[in-house]
Design brief:
Alpha-Beta Plaits, about 475 residues, single chain
Length: about 475
């Protein structure tokens, strides 16, 4: 018995010694052979679902996280996670940039466990920058610029199309935030960029630190003013009564004069200036002029009428009821490759409950009295059938199909067949309706809203929103009664 105990004791001692030796070796290896991973990569991998479904186009969540960190892919490709995961990824990317401007010694003065956690809280807007007194003023200013650039980038397409002339949306957003680029309309999402800047200005207004508030709000105001000046043409002709275009832009921004005071701008530039004034809530004409002179209100428009009565499905889809997930299977179950899939992803994404699903038609409907034109629905729609357009524009082609007429008719009864009748009956000189790539398009700047093209369309794919809105009001009154 004593011999057995002796052997057992020896075994325990040997195993314990080996454990200590190997533990020490692992500690040394970790100390000298450890490879630091990018904090952004770690945070992005945490927020991704981890299903490795490949729907994003990459070989798993880890591979997708790597290309996002490298700037080679946008943060909204995860079909399973949707907008929530895209938002978390964007926050992680911003936190990684902010971390380089923090002290980095994890002093916990900010009440967070580490500087990384504090950076993430800053990116999410859950903690003020003033909580850490050891941040250098120059670094604090850089962090605020990064936050503003992130707000701008969130409004951009994020597809790296380079139509703006930059290498990507991140570079364009930072140029705007730093005041290096005054053209807010290089991207087709210019109106959403303006709204993002206006939202940032309103957010900073609620800050308790007046010095920081004044600095950031002043910076955003200067960005908007310079954008107005860029649309004036900067000719400094003094025909407007001001010494230069900068003073004229200042007067327009403050609501002292109408944008048309400048004789060198066209209708397109005037419309852009009014979008800036409207989004920034700085348009003085709203209180002093009639409705025809006010800045236009924007609403979401669903450019599809492919209701169940007019089209059909190629197969029955029984998986996750999400439009983006459906597109993984070829282009979805709908017969029309350009049309609405009817699973209500836009309805669920709308933060203002401004969209509802018409269960009978299988299409989303916009409640214009609630719509703020934030563009969230347009972002999540995989078919790009939702556009943010002026509410005072009544005539729209409610179809996106660019196939030939015969193919369109096989898929949908109310799809555009490019017959050209709308173009012929338009009374506007040069026509406000044009058929391009087998699809009719309405020129919003020249269209008078007479509705003749609506009546001439043989398939009824052009909608008169003046009539549709009256019908909606009647239905609302009937329901209230």
């Amino acid at each position: 018995m004593d011999v057995v105990l002796t052997y057992m004791t020896a075994v325990v001692v040997v195993l314990g010694a080996l454990g200590l030796v190997f533990g020490a070796l692992l500690a040394v290896a970790h100390r000298f052979l450890h490879v630091e991973r990018d904090l952004r990569l770690v945070m992005i991998e945490k927020v991704l679902p981890g299903f490795d479904c490949g729907a994003c186009g990459y070989g798993g969540c880890a591979a997708y996280a790597e290309v996002v960190v490298q700037g080679k892919a946008p943060p909204d490709l995860c079909k399973v996670g949707g907008p929530e995961v895209a938002s978390r990824i964007a926050e992680a990317m911003l936190a990684g940039k902010m971390l380089g401007h923090l002290p980095g010694d994890n002093c916990c003065e900010c009440l967070e466990e580490s500087c990384a956690d504090y950076a993430l809280a800053l990116a999410r807007g859950e903690a003020p920058l003033s909580r850490c007194s050891r941040v250098d003023p120059a670094e604090a200013k850089e962090i605020r610029i990064l936050k503003l650039a992130a707000d701008v980038e969130s409004a951009l397409a994020g597809r790296g199309c380079r139509k703006c002339g930059y290498d990507g949306c991140t570079e364009y957003a930072e140029a705007i935030a730093r005041g290096e680029d005054n053209n807010l309309f290089r991207c087709e999402r210019g109106p959403l960029v303006i709204r993002a800047l206006a939202a940032a200005m309103q957010r900073e207004t609620a800050r308790s630190n007046p010095q920081v508030h004044n600095e950031i709000v002043s910076k955003i105001r200067n960005i908007l003013k310079r954008s107005i000046q860029a649309n004036l043409g900067t000719k400094n002709c003094i025909e407007c009564g001001y010494e230069n275009c900068a003073e004229c832009a200042e007067a327009i921004f403050n609501g002292d004069v109408d944008p048309e005071k400048c004789r060198h701008i066209d209708a397109k530039a005037a419309a852009r200036i009014r979008q800036i004034l409207f989004a920034a809530e700085a348009d003085a004409f709203a209180d002093t002029q009639d409705a025809s002179e006010r800045s236009p209100r924007f609403v979401a428009v669903v450019k599809c009428q492919g209701a169940r009565a007019h089209t059909h499905n190629r197969f029955r889809y029984v998986s996750q009821p999400d439009c983006r997930a459906t597109t993984v299977t070829q282009y979805g179950q709908a017969a029309c490759p350009y049309g609405c899939l009817g699973f209500g992803t836009c309805v669920r994404a709308c933060p203002f409950n401004a969209l509802v699903m018409d269960e009978e038609a299988g299409l989303p409907r916009v409640l214009e009295d609630r719509c703020t034109a934030c563009g969230t629905c347009a972002e999540v729609c995989p078919k790009n059938i939702i556009e943010i357009l002026p509410a005072d524009q009544y005539v729209h082609v409610l179809c996106r199909n660019k196939d030939r007429g015969k193919v369109v008719r096989q898929a949908c009864e109310v799809g555009c067949i490019a017959c050209g009748k709308c173009e012929k009956v338009c009374p506007v000189e040069g026509s406000a309706v044009h058929v391009k790539d087998n699809l009719a398009e309405v020129d919003l700047e020249t269209c008078t809203g007479c509705g003749k093209c609506v009546q001439a369309c043989p398939v009824g794919c052009i909608g008169d929103f003046r009539k549709l809105r009256k019908e909606a009001e009647k239905r609302a009154d009937a329901n209230a009664a």
